[in-house]
Amino acid sequence: MVDVSDKDITKRSAVAQGTIKLSEEAMEAVLGHKIKKGDVLTVAQVAGIMGTKRTSELIPMCHPIALTNAKVEFDVDAEACEITATCTAVTEGKTGVEMEALIGVSIALLTVYDMCKAIDKSMTIKDIHLVSKTGGKSGDFIKE
Length: 144
Fold this sequence. Notes:
Layout (H helix, E strand, L loop, with lengths): L9 E12 L2 H8 L8 H14 L1 H4 L8 E11 L4 E12 L4 H19 L7 E11 L6 E2 L2
Antiparallel strand pairs: 1-3, 1-4, 2-3, 4-5
Helix pairs in contact: 2-4
């Protein structure tokens, strides 16, 4: 791990995003609450938030971080059969939360896949990326 002992405690946040492409049948099942495992977006939201809190257990050199906020939101494009997940992670600490936001999005989208795979095994998870981050020595970042 990187030694962050001498870094200042500052408010830090990160936003990450990614998308899953589903078949029309799977999208209709998600929107119609017809998935046998339950409400897909609610379960995926909880899974994504849980993922943010377990990031240091999944990424070997990641510091354990006390998050002050984590949220996962979805934008559903029924016509394109795509669900975009956005995860925001916030802390007051000595290291950033980019990995937490990226893990949150990844776990949320993987949960959608898991819950819908009985209908559509061809789903594609794509374009997982950091949208923005604030705080810390390197300053703010916004993806253009």
